[in-house]
């Protein structure tokens, strides 16, 4: 980060909460770690088990997927898309709020770096404007904003019970295909 700062490059940190192995203690560690770094921008997101990922495969095999509505699969979702092995979705959202409060709003080092960055780049008033908007917003999207689709009721529904997804693992650097890579794993 020091070399980036000396080169005039802003440093950004992106942190995920609610990943498969997370507990309240590990989310607390993530927040503390994010707060300790000298970053110009901090962003937190809730871990989402996107289709085709090992996390989705694991959750599907354990029966933890709650929704197959793909329109809800984005990092700002307010929907509990899966049952977390260790945490309730409300607890993950609670830690999201805590993360923004402690790592951004109550972090004088972060606020000072943003202030100095705004003066250095001439974007101080834009930073102040977006900060005011940020204070008025919730860190978790609690509103339901669906996209409008043409004839959505006529779209086919995928039956995951009778036609499970086939998961293909990533290929190795040698590009040799093992038996599992050719056949895939049904989840």
Report on this model:
Helix 2 (24-36) links the parallel strand 1 (12-17) and strand 2. This protein has a single domain (2-144), classed as Transcription Regulator spoIIAA, CATH 3.30.750. The relative contact order is 0.13. The chain is built from 7 helices and 4 strands, in the order αβαβααααβαβ. With 187 residues, it is mainly alpha-helical. Helix 2 packs parallel to helix 4. The longest helix has 17 residues, at 89-105. The protein has helices spanning 2-6, 24-36, 54-61, 89-105, 108-121, 124-136, 179-183, and strands spanning 12-17, 41-46, 166-167, 185-186. It has a two-stranded parallel sheet.
Number of helices: 7
Which strand order do you get reading across the main beta sheet? 1-2
The secondary-structure element order is HEHEHHHHEHE
- Taking all Cα atoms into account, the compactness measure Rg is 21 Å
Terminal-residue CA separation: 41 Å
Number of distinct beta strands: 4
Classification by helices and strands: mainly alpha
When the domains are counted, the total is 1
How big a fraction of the residues is strand? 5-15%
Q: Helicity level, as a percent range?
A: 40-55%
CATH topology name: Transcription Regulator spoIIAA
Shape: globular
User: Any low-confidence stretches, pLDDT <50, length ≥5?
Assistant: none
Rounded mean pLDDT score = 82
């Amino acid at each position: 980060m020091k070399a980036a700062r000396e080169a005039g490059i802003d440093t950004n940190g992106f942190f995920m909460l609610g990943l498969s192995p997370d507990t309240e203690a590990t989310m607390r560690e993530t927040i503390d770690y994010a707060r300790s770094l000298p970053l110009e921008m901090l962003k937190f997101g809730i871990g989402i088990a996107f289709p085709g990922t090992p996390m989705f495969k694991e959750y599907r095999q354990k029966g933890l997927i709650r929704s197959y509505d793909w329109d809800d699969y984005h990092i700002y979702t307010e929907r509990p898309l899966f049952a977390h092995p260790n945490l309730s979705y409300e607890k993950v959202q609670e830690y999201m709020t805590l993360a923004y409060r402690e790592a951004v709003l109550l972090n004088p080092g972060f606020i000072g770096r943003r202030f100095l960055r705004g003066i250095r780049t001439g974007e101080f008033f834009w930073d102040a404007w977006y900060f005011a908007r940020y204070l008025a917003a919730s860190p978790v999207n609690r509103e339901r904003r669906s996209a409008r689709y043409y004839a959505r009721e006529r779209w086919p529904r995928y039956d995951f019970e009778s036609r499970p997804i086939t998961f293909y693992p990533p290929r190795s650097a040698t590009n040799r295909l093992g038996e599992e890579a050719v056949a895939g794993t049904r989840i």
